[in-house]
Amino acid sequence: MHPYRTHSCAALRAEDAGATARLSGWVHSKRDHGGLLFIDLRDHAGITQIVIPAGSVVMDAAEAVRVESVVTVTGEVVLRDGATRNPNLPTGDIEVRAKEFVVQSAAAVLPFQVAGQEHYPEDLRLKYRYLDLRRDKVRRNMMLRAQVIASLRRRMVEQGFTEFQTPILTASSPEGARDFLVPARMHPGKFYALPQAPQQFKQLAMVAGLDRYFQIAPCFRDEAARADRSPGEFYQLDFEMAFATQEEVFATLEPVMEGVFREFGGGREVSAAPFVRIPYAEAMAVYGSDKPDLRNPLKISDVTEAFAGSGFGLFSRIAADGGEIRAIPAPGAGDRPRGFFDKLNNWARENGAGGLGYIVFEADGGKGPIAKNLEAERVEAIREKTGLKAGDAVFFAAGKGDDVAKFSGLVRTRIATELDLIEKDAFRFCWIVDFPMYELNEETKQIDFSHNPFSMPQGGLDALNTQDPLKIKAYQYDIVCNGIELSSGAIRNHLPEVMIRAFEIAGYPESEVEARFGGMLNAFRYGAPPHGGSAPGVDRMVMLLADEPNIREVILFPLNQQGEDLMMGAPAPVEPARLKELSLALDLPKPKPTAKTEPTNVG
């Protein structure tokens, strides 16, 4: 007999009754029932109930052991009585009557319980992540992640892609976030960068003629955490394909996304390919976001014209000053009490707006503070444009440019949430296309790349030479699911002269482009095929499939919000000898002085 186990803790069934089995695992829980001791024994596969009868030679050892100790149990498989069978367990028809009980590793007192569904502080869970990973929900998330990655690999290989590994130690690249830098000991004063993405390498693979590349790629970015962004590192399904149009990239990724979300979505609705394409300008105008949640049925309308020169002075002045007034419909909200509108008004102020004006539509016209000061025909024009009827309401956001677009998007989400309009149990995909090639940096007033700097501008070199940079669109696209951006991608700029000009517009002289990207530029000079790709985030996919609001719940060993590994103690100081070896000296920020309190004379 094997020294540790003949079966997993999920394998035994009623037909195994009478057999002798040996199981190893963790003591999940213990129950004393009047001389009978029951132990739920857990391993990677499941749970089996162990019973130790009164007077058993192993009773003392079993009673003494703490939960989460690792034990090996040998005994007879017996059928449970009808009343004691557990239909919720695959092994619920049997139990193992222990004859041998060996403690392989005794557990200390636990910092928190593994069994049960209690909620514990995240920092405590991360410090003892190896214990947290024993908990059923967390473990299921990790298994889901592994299965999703296996499915992604299989689906890409079936489409003729080959997995290659790109370097981890590389050069800095302007990908939009800070690099993690690694000092090069053998090259004092020089640094490697951890890749923010395998961007240049996968393009070079296309130049090399490898045609269809993919990998489950680790990416490293020194940026703050968010609910859908892990600080430090993340993984993506990175792929690139030669001689491909934008639509061919879409046609490659869509069946992978649809297939994975149907396979692991637990019966939830999934958008059927081809996914809807939404130009960036339309997304900002209609949804107030370049990551629209299409489960939300509300659409924003531009009603600036209805307020231009109107009796409602505030919006009239904003319209005259070049601003916009956007209408966000609220179907069925007309019968809500005044407190509903006051609550949304207070919420708007908390989010930096002056308030949230509204009109309630009734059978005899519009009601509310705005309707009172707005001509009836203008109120009717707003109702018609928004497609509303009596019993509905409409809210307004006013301002200029991206500010009003983004705020109207927040309002759209808030109203749909308050009215319970967001579709449940569904994954709704879309592509956002036609991103602007450049944007104006509000701080520096300089032109920056708005997306991936290696993208092909629509119109090529002629567009770069003749058009206003802020009006040039790029062959850039994002894939979005339920308001979460899963991936950015692009048809790449494979022509050296176009790439040099594109960077020149963004403030990079040719000499700097040659210095920073000379490897890729030189490769392009030896014949580069048109190519493009994308890179949907694995962590975000699993987060959606697991219905987890925080991405750290689907990462094996995540950093906390401050980018710290509480379990391993990273980041950590380095001893002076190591710094000297790397030709480094620290210039740490001085601690802020503490305020001194002058002594007070009393008397």
UniProtKB/TrEMBL annotation:
InterPro entries: Aa-tRNA-synt_II, aa-tRNA-synth_II, aa-tRNA-synth_II/BPL/LPL, Asp-tRNA-ligase_1, Asp-tRNA-ligase_1_N, Asp/Asn-tRNA-synth_IIb, AspRS_core, GAD-like_sf. Keywords: Aminoacyl-tRNA synthetase, ATP-binding, Cytoplasm, Ligase, Nucleotide-binding, Protein biosynthesis. The record marks 33, 82 as: Important for tRNA non-discrimination. Homodimer. Belongs to the class-II aminoacyl-tRNA synthetase family. Type 1 subfamily. This is Aspartate--tRNA(Asp/Asn) ligase. It comes from Acetobacter sacchari. It holds the Pfam family tRNA-synt_2. The keyword Cell cycle does not apply. The gene is aspS. Residues 144-558 form the Aminoacyl-transfer RNA synthetases class-II family profile domain. It catalyses: tRNA(Asx) + L-aspartate + ATP = L-aspartyl-tRNA(Asx) + AMP + diphosphate. GO terms for molecular function: aspartate-tRNA ligase activity.
